[in-house]
UniProtKB/TrEMBL annotation:
Keywords linked to the UniProt accession: DNA synthesis, Nucleotide-binding
Enzyme class: oxidoreductase
Protein name: ribonucleoside-diphosphate reductase
Species for this entry: Crenothrix polyspora
Membrane-crossing residue ranges in chain numbering: none
The family this protein is said to belong to: Belongs to the ribonucleoside diphosphate reductase class-2 family.
Origin: domain of life: Bacteria
Keyword Mitochondrion tagged: no
Lineage of producing organism: Bacteria, Pseudomonadati, Pseudomonadota, Gammaproteobacteria, Methylococcales
Length: 232
């Protein structure tokens, strides 16, 4: 069978048997469930809704604005799902321009590929700047600007329901508040009167939640933020 190609060839790829089988399989799956899913060739709707997150680091006088736009799949059905589609980063500070631009393109490509994109958050948050990190309000340690971007994506994913918040239950919260009062009474610590510091001034950095909230209680290093304790 011969085909006459009328249009110009923009790109080409030889499909392997596996490629064909996978394409048929995914087409069938979609047909059976009649569901939209995220994939590389999904067409971008004219309008997307999203959120913009402001990041202000002590390392630059200009803030950074991260915009994450979402696509709503299977709108109006019980399978309705909001997924991030693209990310843009804007700043007056052009110092890291090419790397930031490259990062946004790669992240957007991962979003559009479909599948689980939540791993991005952990990967980005684990980037340490060799020049050193800094503490944010509430005593959270931020190891780099890339980690800040990871945190913004994380809060967005939590907001749209892709990531579940690992919240402590009420009993655990009460327990940590009681522990904190005990510590403050013991050390005559008045840092709780200071709005900016959520935890005692003498607290050390917790390796689990990266917050300055680790205190020595009853001979054990205990984190007043996430409850992590070396003594179990
Ligand atoms: Zn902790």
């Amino acid at each position: 069978m011969t085909f006459k190609i009328e249009k110009k060839i923009a790109s080409y790829k030889v499909l392997s048997t596996e490629d064909k089988a996978a394409a048929v399989q995914s087409a069938n799956d979609a047909k059976i469930n009649n569901l939209e899913s995220m994939h590389e060739n999904v067409t971008r709707p004219e309008i997307l809704f999203g959120s913009t997150y402001k990041i202000k680091t002590p390392q630059s006088e200009h803030a950074l604005y991260i915009t994450i736009n979402d696509m709503v799949l299977n709108m109006g059905t019980e399978h309705e799902e909001r997924r991030p589609y693209e990310v843009f980063i804007n700043s007056k500070n052009m110092e890291h321009f090419q790397w930031v631009l490259a990062l946004t393109r790669v992240i957007s490509a991962v979003f559009r590929k479909g599948g689980d994109a939540c791993f991005l958050v952990e990967e980005l948050k684990a980037v340490f700047d060799p020049k050193g990190g800094y503490f944010k309000k509430g005593g959270v340690f931020m190891p780099s600007l890339v980690a800040e971007i990871g945190c913004a994506i994380e809060s967005h994913m939590k907001q749209i329901g892709m990531l579940k918040d690992k919240e402590l239950d009420d009993h655990q919260k009460q327990f940590l508040i009681a522990k904190r009062r005990e510590f403050e009474a013991l050390h005559n610590d008045t840092s709780s009167l200071d709005e900016n510091s959520a935890f005692p001034a003498k607290a050390l950095l917790c390796g689990k939640c990266q917050t300055k909230a680790l205190v020595l209680m009853d001979g054990c290093m205990t984190c007043l933020n996430c409850g992590d304790s070396k003594c179990g």
